[in-house]
Amino acid sequence: MASSSHGDQMRIVATQFCSDDQTLIAHIRKTMTIMKEIAVEFEKHNESDKVKELEEAVLELADLSEDSVHLSSAVQAIANGYQPKEEVVNNFRKLLEDEVSKLKGQYTTSDPNSNPLVRQFKEAVWKVHHEGQPMPGEEQEDIVMTSTQSSILNMTCPLTGKPVTELEEPVRSVECKHIYEKRIIMQYIKSSNRCPISGCPKKLRADRVVQDALLLIEIEELRKVNKETEVEDFTLLNEDD
């Protein structure tokens, strides 16, 4: 009973921590969006030094956001897989550091443009004076709208067929980053440990399928983009009529 109680307490604390972390990340992303808008105004007035300062600040915030996501995922993974062992209690900090390092090794990239908000910042500034032209180092066909880019790899749950924007309790695999409905994927894992996404070779563990701090934020951003797209499509249809 005591060990079960300790495990429950760890999961409660982890959930609260991740909720707080999610709030922090949301504020960071809003700040990066505001900085992008300010940089565009500076670029219009050819104040390139100020644009550069903002870009450097955006890169720092992107790193902070990424570190926060890794920390949140690591805390949840450890809490979900908690076993009442003495080494877990005595070496919790090392366990956390090792888990964060593992996540950074898997998902951190040296390319700052891999962060959608960094990419959006640079594109917005570039378009002020180069509308319709590819950014340096890109071909014309490589230009894409990045306002919808995020870390969401699958737009529907492979087990329920529901769009991720309609899932009741979405969770994401720490290993492969695919998203599922929690209740359904936990049932699935009892009989199979292979990711149900076609072609994905990763194996799933219940303690490593979590609601990381960025997931709900990205899903909400996706909802907003979908609504904006629906409005644009409706407007175009009315114009055609």
UniProtKB/TrEMBL annotation:
This is SP-RING-type domain-containing protein. It is found in: Nucleus. Gene3D superfamilies: Zinc/RING finger domain, C3HC4 (zinc finger). Residues 139-224 form the SP-RING-type domain. GO terms for cellular component: nucleus; Smc5-Smc6 complex. CDD domains: SPL-RING_NSE2. GO terms for molecular function: SUMO ligase activity; zinc ion binding. GO terms for biological process: double-strand break repair via homologous recombination; protein sumoylation. Coiled coil: none annotated. Belongs to the NSE2 family. The keyword Zinc-finger applies. It comes from the Eukaryota.
